[in-house]
Amino acid sequence: MTAAGTPPDPDLAIELRGISKSFGPVRANKDIALRVRRGTIHGIIGENGAGKSTLMSILYGFYKADAGEIMIGGKRTEIPDSQAAIDAGIGMVFQHFKLVENFTVLENVVLGAEEGRLLRPSLAKARKLLRQLADDYEMDVDPEAVIEDLGVGQQQRVEILKALYREADILILDEPTGVLTPAEADHLFRILRGLRDEGKTIILITHKLREVMEITDTVSVMRRGEMTATVQTADTSPEELAELMVGRKVLLRVDKAPARPGKAVLEVKNLRVTDVQGVERLKGIDLRIHAGEILGVAGVAGNGQSELLEVLGGYANGTGTIRLNDQTIDLTGTASDARTRRARGIAHVPEDRQREGLIMDYRAWENVGFGYHHDARFNSGIFMDNAALRADCAAKMERFDVRPPDPNLAAKNFSGGNQQKIVLAREIERNPDLLLIGQPTRGVDIGAIEFIHEQIVALRDQGKAILLVSVELDEIMALSDRIAVMFDGRIIGERLPSETDQGELGLLMAGMTGEAAA
Amino acid sequence: MTDSVMPKWADVALVPFINLALALFVSGIVVALIGKDPFEALYILVNGSVGSAYGWGYTLFYTTNFIFTGLGVAVAFHARLFNIGGEGQAALGGLGVALVLLYVPWPHWTIAMLAASVGAAFFGAAWAAIPAYLQATRGSHIVITTIMFNFIASALMVYLLSRVLLVPGAGGSPETARFAEAVHLPSAYEIAPWLGFSRSTPLNVSFFLAIAACIFVWLLIWRTRLGYEIRAFGHSEPAALYAGISPTRITMVSMLLSGGLIGLMAVNAVMGEAERLVIDPVQGAGFVGIAVALMGRSHPVGVFLAALLFGALYQGGGELTFEVNGMTREIILVIQALVILFTGALDNMVRSPIENLFATTRRRPASPEPTTPLEPGGHPERGKAEP
C-alpha cells in the first residue's frame, strides 16, 4: 500500500507503516500497513492468533514493534508506553475491564488522571463531564455508583468514559460485545455512532462478522500476522470477509435437515442447584430433550447455564429429578459423579475446555482417554495401555482433522479449534445417548466452527439428544431445533427458531417475558 | 511456547549444571569472605564425598535417605500437594520399624526387612493420613497441618523414648534397646568387601530398596491409572472433577503414598544404621526431601540424581567441618541453601537466557510450528514466557 516515503496524510487518524513484531520464532505481525481515516469506525477482524491483539498492543504501547513507524494525526509518534498512547489521544477499552471494583464510577474515571493533590476539583470536573456525556451519547451511568454493583454493559460505558475523560480522539475497543446482551450491544453501537459523528475515530476489534457489517465504515482483515485486505464495508459481504479471514470459502450457514425428534431421552424436573456461597443458581429447571433433537440454551453468561451443565455432567450437587431414558439418575451420594454419568451414556463437552475438558500439560493421547480412563480398552492389567491410547488418538485425529495430527503434542500446543476437536472427538465417538455441549466454538477459528457445527448436526441425525449451551445467539439460532432462554437460574421462555428472531430472544435474555417480548 | 526451543539435553543437563556451578561459585565467595581458601574447601568437599570408598559409603547412605523422602514429596507434588511433614512422617516410620523389630523375634533379616518396611510405610502413611483427611474434607491447608504434625511427632517421640520405650539402665540416653543381631541388615562392607568400603560404613541393602522405590514411583506415576488420575488432579482440579476423579480420594491416596515412602527412610536410618531407635533418626532428611523433589522435578531419575548431589553435599560438608578449623555446620547449611536457591528458585534466571540463545541460533528453519516439549514430569511448572 503506502510506501514508506510518501508524505503523511493529515486526514488519517492513524497510519501504520511496515509494523513487524516477532516473539521468538513466531512472527506475530509482518510488515503491517494500516490507514484509519479520521471520524470513521474501522473494524479489524481476523481469526484467533491472526495478530490483531499484538497490533493493538503495539499501538497502545504494551509492546514495542521490531520495525515500522506509527503516525498519529499525520505526525510520526513513538509510543514506548501506554502513557504515551494516552498523550497521543488513544484510548483503549479492553475485553476484560480494568476497573477498581470497590471504587465509584467517578473515582474510576479520575483514577490516574487526578489534577493536583486534592481530589475534589478533579471529581467535580469529572462529574460535570459525565453529565454532559450522558446527555450527548445516552451514556447514562450514575457517577456515585460503585463499580461492582453495575452490570457489564454499564461497566463498559465507564471504560469508554475513562478514555473520553483523558481526551481520547481515537478509541480502540477489543471484542466489546463478547459479554453484552444484544440490547446492550445495540446501545453500545448507538454510543459509538454518536462518538463517530462527533469526529472521534473508533477501531473495533472483533470476530463477529455481523457486527462488522452493521457498524463499521471500513474493515481491515488480518490473517497469520499479515494485513490481507482493507475494504469499504458497504462494498463487501460477510461471506467475502470470512473468506479473507480464513483463506478459503466458508459456509456461514449450517446446513441441516429438519429434526425428527424421537422419544424423550432427558427429562429434568424442578432441578435446583445452590453453590458453595449458598446462592441458588438454578431455581427449578424443567426441560425435556428428545432423541434426534438439539435443544439450544441461550442466555447471557452467568445465568445458570454452567451450573446446568455441571449438575447434568455429574459434578455439582443439586435437587430435583433427572431421568435419562426413563431411568432416574442419582443426584446425591457416591454414585453421583462424572464417571457414573458417562457410564450412563452422558457425554460432556465442557464450556471451558482449557480448565475442564483437557489437561493442558497432558499430551493429546493422554487427553483422549480423559474421563474414560477406566475403560477396559485403555487398560491392561494394572497399567494403562498407552499404546492403545496413542492408536485411538491417532485415529481420532484423522477423523476429526486435528492439526498437527501428532498424538505426542501437549494439549496446550494446539490452537483453540484443534483443542476443541480433540474434546469433541473424545466425547462424540463414545456414541453417547445425550451430549452436553457448552460454548462449542468459543475461541475457535471460523474454519473450525464450520466443522464443529457439522459434527454436532451429524450426531443429532444419528438420533442422539443434544443440549447445546452457547452465549452466541447466532450459533443458537443456527443449530437448535428448539431454543430455551435462561435468565437468573430459570428457563424464562422456549421458542422455535423458525418462529423467533434475535430481537425477541435478546429481550428474553434480558429477563423480559410475556407480552413485552412478543 | 518458549519451552520448546531447547533440546532435551540442555533442559535436563546443561541448565542444572550451570545452576550448580553458580551455586558453588557464590559458595566460594562466602568461604573466601570468612577467610578460608575456597579451592581447598571445594577439594575437601568433593574428595570427602566421592574421593574414596569411605566417602562413597556415607554419601550413598545419605542418598538412600534422600531418595525416600524426595520420592515421597514428589508423589505429593504430582497431586499439587505440598507435603512438608517429612520429618514427622519419617520419625513415625522409625517408630514403626522399632516396634516391628523389638517385639517380634524375626528369624532372618530378609523377612525382618520386609516386615520393617511395611511397619515404616504404615506408620509414615498414618502420620500423613490425618493432615490429608483434614485437607480433603475440611480444606485445612496441608502445608500448615503437615508442619504442625512435625512438632507433634517430635514431642511424641521424646515422650515414647524417654518414658515408654526407654531401655532400663541405658544411662539416661533416650533410646530403645538394640535390635536383635538376627535382623542386622548386610552393610556394603559385608556385601561387597572388594569395593573397599570400611567396616563401619552405614551404607546397607536399603540402598536397593530405594532404587526399587524409584522404579515403583515411576511405574505408579506414568504407567498406572492411579498415577494418571493423580497427575490430572495435580494439573487441574476442575478438570479432575469433570472427568469423575474424586479430589478426596486422590488427596488421601497420594498423601498416604507420600507418607509411606517417606516412612521407608527409617528402614535405612533406623534398621540399617542405628539398629535402635534414637531421639531424632531423621536428621533433617524430611526437609532435604523437598529440595530433592524440587530439583529432581518430581521425576524418579531426577530425584535419584538430586539425592546423590545432596548426599555428597552432606557427607562432603561433614568432612569440611571436620577438616577445616573454623568451618562450622552453618557454612554447610549456607552452601546447601545456595544449591537449593540456584537450582530451584533461580532456575529461570539461567533458563531464560539459554532458551533465548537456542531460539536465536536455530531461528528460521521455516515455519514456527510448535514442537513438543517432551517433559515427562514437569510438575512444578517452569515459568511460561510470553506467547
Automatic annotation (TrEMBL), chain A:
It is a peripheral membrane protein. InterPro entries: AAA+_ATPase, ABC_carbohydrate_import_ATPase, ABC_transporter-like_ATP-bd, ABC_transporter-like_CS, P-loop_NTPase. Its EC number is 3.6.3.17. Its main location: membrane. It is found in: Cell membrane. PROSITE patterns: ABC_TRANSPORTER_1 (PS00211), ABC_TRANSPORTER_2 (PS50893). Belongs to the ABC transporter superfamily. This is Galactose/methyl galactoside import ATP-binding protein MglA. It comes from Jannaschia seosinensis. The gene is mglA_2.
Automatic annotation (TrEMBL), chain B:
The keyword Membrane applies. It is a multi-pass membrane protein. GO terms for molecular function: transmembrane transporter activity. Pfam families: BPD_transp_2. It is found in: Cell membrane. The chain crosses the membrane at residues 12-35, 55-77, 89-106, 112-130, 142-161, 203-222, 250-271, 277-294, 301-317, 329-346. CDD domains: TM_PBP1_transp_TpRbsC_like (cd06580). Residues 378-387 have a biased composition (Basic and acidic residues). Keywords: Cell membrane, Membrane, Transmembrane, Transmembrane helix. Its main location: membrane. InterPro entries: ABC_transp_permease (IPR001851). The keyword Cell membrane applies. PANTHER family: ABC TRANSPORTER, PERMEASE PROTEIN (PTHR47089), GUANOSINE ABC TRANSPORTER PERMEASE PROTEIN NUPP (PTHR47089:SF1). This is Ribose transport system permease protein RbsC. It comes from Jannaschia seosinensis.
